[in-house]
Write a structure and sequence with these properties.
Helix content: 55-70%
Largest sheet: none
Shape: elongated
Number of strands: 0
Oligomer: single chain
């Protein structure tokens, strides 16, 4: 049996990219994140209001009936 020696060679051919972010790009990210968070809060609030209306009316069918009665003015 002969002993063989395994060697591992690593190539260090890293490519360096010069990327610069501007202040306006970072501000845009914050603004977009804030708008998305606000939209999420509004969505959760609307679901909470809808569920409350269904519980007050007695169910989804009664809610729809009450809605159409309000539209018709009965």
């Amino acid at each position: 049996m002969s002993d063989t020696e395994l060697t591992k060679q690593q190539s260090k051919s890293g490519i360096k990219e010069n990327t610069q972010t501007t202040v306006s790009a970072e501000i845009d990210k914050v603004v977009i994140g804030s708008i998305a968070a606000f939209a999420g809060v509004v969505g959760l609030w609307s679901v909470a209001c809808f569920m409350s209306a269904m519980f007050q009316a007695g169910g989804p069918l009664q809610l729809a009936a009450g809605y159409f009665k309000a539209l018709a003015g009965m």
